[in-house]
Write a structure and sequence with these properties.
Length: 125
């Protein structure tokens, strides 16, 4: 059942938003999973686009699976543009992963403190 998130945005399933999500909308668990998979793919594609841009400049450091996963989670929750223009993504680009993890914890979105702390842990794993 559609609900308003902490910012008042209509949301359904596992965090899906969009113009089709309105008061009174109901979906099945299978539909909610389909939306989650689609939204997660979109978030992962955003992170890949960011990295592709960077590869043209040949980064001197590796991005681990944990870093990728944490960034996908953050993009899913905050949006591609918010992550692309954030201070912490610049720290990632510079290779200052410890600072980037700290900045993830400082990055406040509707996901709240617990989610940011977990993303920071995953980022450093």
């Amino acid at each position: 059942k559609a609900y308003k998130d902490t910012k008042g945005i209509w949301t359904i399933g596992y965090g899906h938003t969009g113009p089709e999500v309105k008061n009174g909308l109901k979906i099945t668990k299978d539909d909610a999973l389909k939306l989650l998979y689609s939204d997660a793919k979109e978030a992962a594609d955003c992170v890949r686009r960011i990295f592709k841009e960077w590869k043209q400049k040949e980064l001197p450091h590796q991005i681990t699976q944990g870093m990728f996963d944490a960034l996908v989670s953050l993009v899913f929750n905050a949006g591609c543009d918010a992550v692309r223009t954030s201070d912490f993504i610049q720290s990632v680009k510079k290779g200052d992963m410890k600072r980037a993890a700290e900045q993830i914890e400082e990055f406040r979105t509707a996901g709240g403190v617990d989610r940011r702390n977990k993303e920071s842990e995953i980022f450093l794993s």
